[in-house]
Specification:
A hairpin with a 2-residue loop joins strand 10 and strand 11. With about 160 residues, the protein is an all-beta fold. About 0% of the residues lie in helices and about 50% in strands. Strands 5, 7, 8, 10, 11 and 13 form a 6-stranded antiparallel beta sheet that branches. It has a 5-stranded antiparallel beta sheet with strand order 6-4-14-9-12, with no helix packed on it. A 3-stranded antiparallel beta sheet has the order 1-2-3, with no helix packed on it. It is elongated.
Length: about 160
């Protein structure tokens, strides 16, 4: 096994605390436990504008801010971003979009014509500079969540 460790800068003669940044095991599997990534899910109320989620079970590096719904890129690179919405309404539609720095990159529209559940979402690789941010944005006349709020999510991962 090969283990690559990093240490924050410190003062002379102080104890050094190392953290594993990457490891390659004898089967060739590579793990990067410090790789920026997040997953936020569920929304407690009908979103309009930036979608805010009710929980953030995973947030490596704390680059996702649930108070404003933004994932801010810590470094330049390509990021895999995913979003998904699930709702129930007989009289509305869902229109969720992935926005970068306030501009729409891609959107997904779903017309809910019956009182059944409907879904919309997408995934894409986004090139981000350090400091760029990505949000999920919802148009105003969309489906209100029923009991499926936990099935809606937003996630991202630095590919490299």
């Amino acid at each position: 096994q090969h283990v690559f460790q990093v240490a924050p800068s410190g003062t002379a003669d102080a104890a050094i605390s190392f953290t594993t940044a990457m490891a390659i095991d004898n089967a060739g599997r590579v793990t990067k436990p410090l790789q920026p990534s997040f997953m936020a899910r569920g929304y407690a109320s009908r979103p309009s504008g930036v979608v805010l989620f009710s929980s953030v079970p995973h947030n490596v590096g704390s680059h996702y801010n649930n108070s404003n719904g933004r994932f801010t890129a810590p470094i330049a690179g390509n990021y895999l971003m995913t979003w998904f919405a699930n709702a129930k309404s007989a009289t509305s539609y869902m229109n969720w979009a992935l926005n970068k720095n306030g501009a729409t990159l891609a959107g997904a529209y779903s017309d809910i014509a019956t009182a059944s559940y409907d879904t919309t979402g997408g995934a894409m690789v986004v090139s981000l500079a350090a400091g760029d941010y990505v949000i999920v944005f919802s148009a105003t006349n969309y489906a209100a969540p029923a009991t499926t709020t936990s099935y809606s999510f937003f996630s991202g991962y630095l590919l490299g």
